[in-house]
Amino acid sequence: MKNSIKLHAASIVLAVLIFLGISSNSFAQTEADESLRPAFSLLTGTFELDLSKLGHPNQDIKFYIDNEILMVDTGEGYHLEMTPVDKKKSEFIVEDPHHGNMTYTFQQDKDGTFNSVIVKIDMLDIELPGTRIDGYLELYS
Known about the structure:
- This protein is α+β, with helices and mostly antiparallel strands.
- It has 2 domains: 38 residues; 93 residues, Beta Barrel (Lipocalin), CATH 2.40.128.50.
- Strands 4-3-2-1-9-8-7-6-5 form a 9-stranded antiparallel sheet, covered by helices on one side.
- The termini are far apart.
- About 21% of the residues have low confidence.
C-alpha cells in the first residue's frame, strides 16, 4: 500500500514537472514571437516583382503575417511560410514546391523603410528585384 502511494505521488510530481516544462517553453516561444512581430510588420505589404530577366511581365507578391509567421502570397495561387535566416529580421528562406529554395532579402532605404526586396531563386541562380507598391498589411490571426 505504501509503495502504491509513493508511486502515485511520484506520478503526480512528474506530471506537474512536465506541465511546467511545457508551459515555460510555450511562454518562451510566445515571448520570442512577440519580439519578432513588430519587425515582421515592417515587411508586410504588396511588392511588384520584376520578372523581365525571366521574360515574364511583373508580378505582385504580398507579404503578410498569419499566426505570428511571415507569409508570402506568391501571386501564383499559393502562400508560403518564410523562415528567418540566422535570426535576421530582413532575410528569409522559402521552400517553394514549384521553384525550389528561394531567399528573400528586404532592403531598407535611407529613411529606414523596407521598400524593396531581392528574391534569389537558387535553382536558376538569379536575383529578381521587387519594389513596394502598397502599404503595410498588418494582418494578425
